[in-house]
Amino acid sequence: MDFSEVLEKRRAVNFFDPEKEVSEEELKAIVEDAAKAPSSFNLQPWNLVVLRDHEEKARLRKLAWDQPKITDAPVVLMVLADRKGWQAGNEGLEKLFKNNVKSGIMTEDKYQWFTETTGGLYGTTEDRIQAFACKNAALFAMSLMYSASNRGLQTHPMDGFDLDGVTKEFNIPDQYWLTMLIAVGHLKQGIEIFPKAWRKSYEDIVKKF
Questions:
Q1: Could you write out the DSSP letters of every residue in 24-54?
Q2: What's the N-to-C CA distance of the chain in angstroms?
Q3: I need a labelling partner for 138 at 20 to 30 A (CA). Which of 11, 41, 99, 149 fits?
Q4: Angle, CA 166 vertex, CA 65 and CA 26 arms, to 5°
Q5: Does the pTM of the predicted model rise above 0.70?
């Protein structure tokens, strides 16, 4: 699919076909596409919880404004932002450093410099930590939705949920910030998708101060 077509066809749909599945192969391909998203220092501080089980989705729906798409969509993703993704000892950071050494980008003696640099960039204040985690997770999430669109699937990102309630109900460690939920599936038959609503123009977007 041409990228302009991907942009046009990517919609936040409300009505999913509960009878039409998203295969594990499709989901894996979408996630691996999304993993190519840009990332601060390539730390990739993003993770997913994948919900397919109807009972689990029903528990989530109760904490997410009772949105039907949560139980209708075959897959609901919890997009997690790893607030410790910059720290020495973090699983992702350690794998990245080992890969950097293996590929010749760094040498073993650069470990202290590497962790001090990531800490200095992202770990100096709670605001910086939160911004680091969430902006990276959002880049990943948007890439995931574009990939789904390219593969003929529909998505809907959701911020309408009880953050504390979902975090507690699904035992999400404090290390992770639940950035958004994303429903993934196929459009329900007979549902008309209206043209995209008004969007800001270039002149609306660009500001001078």
A1: HHHHHHHHHHHTTS--GGG---EEEEEE--H
A2: 39
A3: 99
A4: 85
A5: yes
DSSP, res 64: T
Q: Which residues of 86-125 are buried (b: 16+ CB within 10 A; e: fewer)?
A: bbeebebbeebbeebbeeeebeeeebeebbeebeeebbee
Token pair for 78: 């919890």
C-alpha distances in angstroms, 168 versus 53, 79, 126, 179? 18, 15, 21, 15
- Joined tokens for residue 153: 């699937």
Q: Which tens digit of pLDDT belongs to each residue from 47-96? A: 999 999 999 999 999 999 999 999 999 999 999 999 999 999 999 999 99
In whole angstroms, give the CA distance from residue 89 to residue 74.
35
